[in-house]
Amino acid sequence: MWRKWLEREAEQGDHAALAALRGIHYREQRNKSKQVNTIEGEELDPLRKLTLAGLEAQIDRKRQLVLYRDAQGRDKFTDTGPHIVMHDKSDDSLEAALRMAAQKYGGKVDITGSSEFRERAARQAVRLGIEVMDADLQAIVQDEQRRMQRPPQLSPTAVEKSPPMRPSP
Do 26 and 37 belong to one domain? Predict the structure, then answer.
């Protein structure tokens, strides 16, 4: 009964009802498995679609989320407010989701999901200048920061052989 009333009020533009619905939705989602690959943070802006190159955004006001799809209609990720839930594993989708998270969450993120996803996302976040808040990912963050500080190394096949030098007359 309470939820239905909140939904009616939210549809009429009541911002407090929208916030209450988002809180209910957050609590419901919080108990789901941590194996869902997500990027999380403290939401600083109200629900709105953000422009991301090459992605189409669809707002679902009733469920309080924004679904991002590519030009072919494939789901890439969903912005639920405090979470960005990944549907696609590509590097491009991860980068777009991290850039959105940086904008939404003030440049700080928490990463949940499989260990492989968490490592990939943490390394990419470091490369994008996004602060990773997870204490258990700090070793990966520091490793990626060290990698970025090292000068690029040339492989032996990348070095061209120069012609022998002739002695000067």
Answer: no
29-48 burial, b at 16+ Cβ within 10 Å, e below that, comes to eeeeeeeebbbbbebeeebe
pTM of the model: 0.65
Q: What is the pLDDT of residue 48?
A: 56
Tell which residue, 142, 124, 108, 125, has the closest CA to residue 40: 108
The total number of structural domains that make up the chain: 2
Containing structural domain, residue 3:
1-31
* 39 closest CA partner among 68, 9, 74: 68
Does 166 reside within a domain?
no
CA-CA distance, 129 to 87, in Å (whole number)? Answer: 23
Residues 43 and 2 in one domain: no
Q: Give the pairing type, strands 38-40 and 108-112.
A: antiparallel
Please state, in angstroms and rounded to a whole number, the distance separating the CA atoms of residues 60 and 48: 10
Q: Does one domain contain both 83 and 102?
A: yes
**What pLDDT does residue 143 have?**
94
* Single-letter amino acid code for the residue at 149: Q
pLDDT band, very low/low/confident/very high, at 27 (cuts 50, 70, 90): low
